[in-house]
């Protein structure tokens, strides 16, 4: 479905006066508003190809209809999001779910929608038809060299697809681990995994990064071979300068202080990127900011502070990706909400006065420090984000325009009601 620019302009025109009033009110109390707006215009969040269809749990899946049936349609869906919000200009692919049959065509289609290719994701957590070895007892950690070789070769193949498309990073998430005490030798599992990752690392082009994603548990429930940030950091350190840790917000044990993890990884130059989502219990993959938006803000506060301390570019020096699953919402509406939540947290973090906060810290003024953080968090920054969208040619209110244009209804007409997108 195509959204013509004039429809966006028409929609914006109707609510422009109202927007201007709200924007001027916030802008009047922000010191460096132009600088912040430019940062918001530049910031892009990659959409995972597997989040465009309705997800499910192990109990069932209730399809929503009009889901993308091919990689081309996935790119079109993201193109649509990007047109509405001007901050979803990237896609994260998953092999084998998104094998590009003709990379040049796929590249051209993405370019037409202003979309670049963020990290490529490999898959050694499922057995594919015709594959020689099974991943039932792990992949890179496996006791059998044949299985490890197969997992290595697969990752190298994913890098090759990525090179063709112009991606510059590989995310490795391993389901490896054990379900019961005694099932495996944890030290040997680590060593096998490290050796396997080293072989993949050796194939990375010079300008590429490898992201090692950790996860506390699931599908293994006793041990996970890349189970936390310490283990991921260990792999990344041993692998070399092109290897980094990837933080998926849902992959921690309850109450983990994620912002502190982020601050230290950044300090050690080992933070590679994010899988944004939200959760109440574990890897719930819910809409970003739907459960704990304050935590998201605190994470962004560390990111902004840490990146500025190292002179990093907010928009391009880390991988910003969503990893979510939508069981009851329209996936595209959910993604619009997630992107908005990320932009809100980022904008609020940009409002924190770093000098004032430092002064409060140096004076042990705990009350003042809290006031500074919560002052930023409680600012309604939505008009700033809307203004950034307006300047980027997108919609003031993407979700409302999406509904007004009846996008989902149109997609169902185009693609049918009984569609199942490949993915989680
Ligand atoms: C799994 O729990 C991880 O979050 C993965 O990053 C991701 O969901 C997967 O690679 C998509 O298949
Ligand atoms: Zn993830
Ligand atoms: Zn996950
Ligand atoms: Zn998740």
Automatic annotation (TrEMBL):
Taxonomic source organism: Segetibacter aerophilus
SUPFAM superfamilies, sorted: Xylose isomerase-like
Protein name per UniProt: L-rhamnose catabolism isomerase
Top-level lineage group: Bacteria
Residue ranges that the Swiss-Prot or TrEMBL entry lists as coiled coil: none
Keyword Isomerase: yes
GO molecular function list: isomerase activity; metal ion binding
Keywords: Isomerase, Manganese, Metal-binding
UniProt lineage: Bacteria, Pseudomonadati, Bacteroidota, Chitinophagia, Chitinophagales
